[in-house]
User: What shape does this take?
Amino acid sequence: MEIIFLGTGGGRWVTITQKINTGGFRIHASKNMHIDPGPGALVALQKANISPLSTDAMLISHCHPDHYTDAEVLIEAMTHGMTKQKGVLACSESVLVGKDNLGPAISRYHQSKIRKLEILKPGEESNIYDIKVEALPTRHSDSTTVGLKFHTECGILTYTSDTEYFEGISKHYSGSRIMILNAIRPKSDRIPWHLCVDDAIKIIREVKPELAILNHFGMKMLGIANAEARRAEKETGIRTISAKDGARVAISEGRIKC
Ligand SMILES: [Zn+2]
Assistant: This one.
């Protein structure tokens, strides 16, 4: 199994300026899943030499542009140019039907060609082909945002998506072998609705995964993400890296290579 980081940026200023890419990441296992295809996902796929046509499923955690903007074009790829009823699309309620002043982000036309459409709600689980995926609760400005817990053949992989730290958050991530944490700001430089690295450290310490990956960097993380990952590793004793555009993490039952 492999995780491919297409874009590791997040937040509005990195997204607007594209200092780093914001195309989300992929999990290539028995099927290929694209998670949170923000702006630049298609360009990043091209750079990574991955055909968008190889996409079997797409998961979108919430309805903010740095997580969804390339989704419709990826649906066109997943359905072979809208000629086939194909693929799985699993999203927060806001992305598929809209919630408050957000969304929907996917047109009815694009939704109509998907073979299996699912709304992900915290506490519920769904099967994306042979992979069980649990939707986890968050505290984010899109109230329907979900974290994701993938039960794969190589163990449990979790993704926080955008959330702020809240009491009890870590228990939802129990059993994680690999955690991807969206830490938009360094140190204790907290902004509402998001994790900073000190929050991520608290979660990593409580969950104790084999590998933690910091991801989704805002402006203040640029240039220091590596150092922040090293600090997190030192403070937690858990192997921690910062995601990089184009980086791949290979996972087998026995080892994780990054
Ligand atoms: Zn967000």
